[in-house]
Design brief:
Number of strands: 17
Helix content: under 10%
Largest sheet: 5 strands, mixed
Radius of gyration: 34 Å
Shape: elongated
Number of helices: 1
Order of helices and strands: EEEEEEEEEEEEEEEEEH
Length: about 260
């Protein structure tokens, strides 16, 4: 049986806990599950089958559902004992549960061009790392990126949004793209924030330089200085000159030399 050390469940929600079991024998085996959920307060509910037949040399999953009431708090443990059809019992299994919600935050941002400056009159892209430190998945998280002329973002230039899921205890990269066509070069601010209404939990504000913005310089495109055509012309002239100098002279008929 393989289990996580702790499972999070949000108030008023239900989670499914998978118990991975394997039968290494050469015949079907039937496992009986006995649950002790006496620690769960009133309003909690544990459901799931109490037996599972597993084919030989097979790994399968036995699911247990746990639902928490709207006012649920605290941490609890459900104890499971397992017995096969031969009457053999296995070590007691502990399923640890904790009331939790997503805890979402922006941890970093990186301009994908590889430099420090964005470039005007081009499409610029960023990768923004969004973390969830909670025990519950965060679904439909909306990241809002806004290019502003001030640190407090009172004047918006352009913006982009990205929506994605951030599993519990993980970090997910969000892609942000902005078309800076017609934007004057200069000093701007990139404001990053998580839409709080998109997260059923806690949103930690992003404040690297205060106000959720980072300084961003928008530069002009680099001028192409490709002068390779000059080298080609010079090379052609040198080859032509050498050809003229090394060309054999023609002799008159019957000339003595």
């Amino acid at each position: 049986v393989s289990l996580d050390p702790l499972y999070g469940v949000s108030p008023g929600e239900e989670i499914q806990i998978p118990l991975e079991i394997r039968n290494d024998g050469n015949g079907d085996d039937r496992y009986e599950f006995n649950f002790d959920d006496s620690e769960l307060p009133d309003g909690w509910e544990r459901t799931g089958a109490t037996s599972h037949t597993v084919a030989p040399f097979t790994t399968t999953t036995h699911s247990i559902n746990v639902a928490a009431p709207e006012n649920a708090t605290g941490e609890y443990t459900v104890y499971v004992t397992v017995m096969d059809k031969e009457g053999n019992s296995y070590p007691e299994i502990e399923i640890n549960l904790a009331i939790s919600n997503p805890v979402v935050s922006i941890t970093s941002q990186q301009l994908l061009s590889g430099g420090d400056n964005a470039v005007t009159n081009r499409v610029n892209s960023w990768v923004v790392a969004v973390a969830n430190d909670g025990l519950v998945d965060a679904t439909g998280v909306e990241l809002i990126a806004t290019l502003c002329t001030s640190l407090t973002c009172t004047s918006e230039v352009t913006m982009d949004t990205e929506i994605g899921d951030v599993p519990a205890n993980s970090v997910v990269n969000f892609d942000i793209t902005m078309d800076l066509d017609g934007i004057d070069p200069g000093n701007y601010y990139l404001n990053l924030e998580i839409n709080e209404s998109s997260v059923e939990g806690e949103v930690v504000p992003f404040e690297p330089d205060q106000g959720g913005s980072v300084n961003l310089v928008v530069s002009s495109p680099a001028v192409d200085t490709d002068s390779s055509w000059i080298g080609y012309i010079l090379g052609a002239l040198i080859i032509a000159a050498l050809a003229m100098l090394t060309r054999p002279r023609s002799r008159r008929p019957n000339a003595p030399f």
